């Protein structure tokens, strides 16, 4: 948004009255915006403002200044006749008019942002979410590979186990080092940043077998293995992680292809069924906002609201 000086106090009252009537010329708009916009932009502003003023008149409320609830209701009530992109453009125009007239900008209020997020979610097709990798998938893979002593089988089983139990991101998995493995009595842990993730007995056994067969004592915990079965020195990259989860789909005969995100989706759903709140799942999965865990467990409205809050926070940093 271009920086434009607000209307001076000597002309403020007259301008507010004129804008509330809604009938303004291109020259009027050019004057209040200090000739910063093209004619096409001014036409768009004029038309958008007239639409909003007409709505306010039909609702018997004031357009300038307008209440936050008025702008929210405008978005909700006109969503059946107008595209979300058009509504968003009109809301931007309303915000501009308020700032030019030294009024508080209602378009920045979270109530309006949440309403727009809900409208966008309703208009968009369902987001293509990664296929959930569930506990039953992990159990089947353990049964299939539990007696194998092939290095690739042990590593892949450990990857599936760690990602599911620790809700690991692909970057966190690749960054794991041997030094991140801790023991406290009979319990085994891995450190993910500042968070200590406790491992199940089965995963701890798989980890011990991996360390024994790989001979890894320091550096990357999970490494690439070439086509000859030789262990490399470099950590897994995104394409390697993708192939590991595609292999899980092939072994299980699943019609969907798992991705590195699949365990976080499946584990989030399982934790929600256990009664954990979205906030608790967010903490366990180390998400910066509750948006994604809310989406994974099916709470779409909470997800969109959290995304709106997160975008607002980032825009003010």
Automatic annotation (TrEMBL):
<feature type="region of interest" description="Disordered">
    <location>
        <begin position="295"/>
        <end position="317"/>
    </location>
</feature>
<protein>
    <submittedName>
        <fullName>Tyrosine-type recombinase/integrase</fullName>
    </submittedName>
</protein>
<dbReference type="Pfam" id="PF00589">
    <property type="entry name" value="Phage_integrase"/>
</dbReference>
<keyword id="KW-0233">DNA recombination</keyword>
<dbReference type="InterPro" id="IPR011010">
    <property type="entry name" value="DNA_brk_join_enz"/>
</dbReference>
<dbReference type="InterPro" id="IPR010998">
    <property type="entry name" value="Integrase_recombinase_N"/>
</dbReference>
<keyword id="KW-0238">DNA-binding</keyword>
<feature type="domain" description="Tyr recombinase">
    <location>
        <begin position="128"/>
        <end position="311"/>
    </location>
</feature>
<dbReference type="InterPro" id="IPR013762">
    <property type="entry name" value="Integrase-like_cat_sf"/>
</dbReference>
<dbReference type="InterPro" id="IPR002104">
    <property type="entry name" value="Integrase_catalytic"/>
</dbReference>
<feature type="compositionally biased region" description="Basic residues">
    <location>
        <begin position="308"/>
        <end position="317"/>
    </location>
</feature>
<keyword id="KW-0614">Plasmid</keyword>
